[in-house]
Amino acid sequence: MVQFLSLTSSVATLLLLSFGVHNVASATTCAVASSSGDAADNIVTAFTNCNNGGTVVFTKGVTYNLNSIVTITGLKNVNVNLAGTIKLASRATSFQNLDHYIQLKGSNVNVYGGGTINGNGQAWYDAEDHTAPTVLRLSLTDSNVGYFTIINSPRAHLGVTNSNNLVLTNITLNTASTSDNEAKNTDALDVSSSSGVIFKDSTLTIGDDCTAINGGVTNITLSNIICNGGHGFSVGSLGKGGKTETVKTVRVLDSVCNNCQNGVRIKTWPGGEGSVSDVKYSNVKLNNVDNPVIVTTHYCDKNQQSYCNGNDDSSLTISGVTFNKITGSVSSKGNPIININCSVDTPCSDFTLSGVSITKASKTKSNVCVNLSGSSKISECSA
């Protein structure tokens, strides 16, 4: 495995301007050399030579085979022109349970270029092995990342941790199995311990959460996201194993979920502590979704059921949640359109539902509002 420190810099002028970056001059340009073997060393060389203000270029039409783990830290004032293709290694036990394939850490980083990261995930799906690393881990400040594609991710596509003022835009994720073994656990975007994150103008075809907003996140906005076949726009899961976690100020706006398992969702574990507050879903269209609006403090893995049953009376507090203009249709599975089920000792509170208009199926059950303070005044709770 290879780890390395470095920076990156470069991009087409129009793309940088679309990011709001106007200083497009770059002191040095470093093209990653092509190779028939592992591209890791050449990537290291390019980043090292273009540290502090240079441009690293993955050349259009070139495929870079990455057979090692790459960690790039200390980035500052750099651009990455990802115009070519990075192809990850085939499934191997040496990658199991590692954090990432590629990580970028630093500040004032701009990634663009129209290229592709090929996660090469089919062998992971066929082995039903859900231990692969996240494809791209970002720990960035005052940065812009976008205008590229990730395909065939073996697990999560994008992970954002310890980031501030990060914009993700015009990203295409396209992961689907070609066999009967589904591409499970392939979250689009996992975010934790970050503030001021914007994710917008992107299309996701994935096999798990469209977004998973985890502990330590404040002030995150998702807008104009189209998600196909995923598990919804999720906050959580939070509080696993009694952990204390906080999420505050979440906006999911002007987005679509097609044929998703869940639509808009908040999920916390029994026995967890902390809070979820100031969450707004607005103008979200859910087409043929199994569970359109779902809030639960009873989230649990099957192998943890005994623990969950013993701690089910309390969880994180969930308050200040708005569902506004949630439209579309529920699938034929018979689940309620609205399912809000909170804990008896830590009830949910201060919920607003307005303009929720989801077309029922023939077997759709009545809405559920359990341990929701003020539910008697919410008309949707009796529908």
Structural class: mainly beta
CATH class: Mainly Beta
Distinct helical segment count: 4
**Structural domains: how many:** 1
* Amount of helix: under 10%
Q: Termini, distance in Å?
A: 56 Å
CATH topology: Pectate Lyase C-like
pLDDT averaged over residues = 94
Order of helices and strands: HEHEEEEEEHEEEEEEEEEEEEHEEEEE
Uncertain stretches: 1-14
What's the CATH architecture?
3 Solenoid
What do we call the CATH homologous superfamily?
Single-stranded right-handed beta-helix, Pectin lyase-like
Shape: elongated
The whole-angstrom Rg is 21 Å
Biggest pleated sheet: 24 strands, parallel
| Binned strand content | over 45%
The count of strands amounts to: 24
Pfam family, one: Glyco_hydro_28
Family: Belongs to the glycosyl hydrolase 28 family.
GO molecular function, one term: polygalacturonase activity
Main location: secreted
What is the structure about, briefly put?
This protein has helices spanning 13-18, 40-49, 122-126, 305-310, and strands spanning 29-31, 55-58, 63-66, 70-82, 85-88, 100-112, 116-118, 134-151, 158-161, 164-174, 189-192, 195-205, 211-213, 217-228, 233-238, 244-258, 262-268, 273-289, 291-296, 317-330, 338-341, 349-354, 357-359, 368-370. It has four helices and 24 strands.
Descriptive notes:
This protein has 383 residues and is mainly beta. It has one domain (57-381): 3 Solenoid (Pectate Lyase C-like). It is 7% helix and 49% strand. It contains four helices and 24 strands. It has a 24-stranded parallel beta sheet that branches. The N and C termini lie far apart (56 Å). The model is unreliable at 1-14 (pLDDT under 50). One of its GO terms (cellular component) is extracellular region. It is found in: Secreted.
